[in-house]
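The data are passed on as follows:
___
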Amino acid sequence: MPGVRRQISSDVKRIVVEMSQQADVPLTRAQIRSLTGVAESTQRRINALYRCTGEVAVRPIECGRRRVMHALDVMFLEGLVERRPDITLLEMQQALGEVCDVDVSISTICRTLKRVGFTRKQVCTELTDLAYE
């Protein structure tokens, strides 16, 4: 079936390479196809990749920029929120700059907290004023 794609596991790809590079009598592509179900064109691509890189699967390229905040910075943020749940993003930004010497935007802090699992809740200023009186 031309045009139908399926994911081939790395184990099957290694078997295809081993079958096509046997020292005694290597199998033909048609024989390998009948044994593994891997198309001949796919076998060619797998063998070419193996000859070039020594791997049977393409390693994905990391996309995007590196993160500005490291794991310790994220743990520091978590500690700030756990110690003072009503802390604002601006206060977190200032604390990160003073303590960790990391200059990040408020949106970066917000996204980091979301990725870690914190949710945002708005603080009602009237209730906080009453609590401190």
In short: The chain is about 60% helix and 0% strand. The helical segments are 10-20, 29-36, 40-53, 71-83, 89-100, 106-116, 125-132. The mean pLDDT is 85. The CA atoms of residues 81 and 87 lie 7 Å apart.
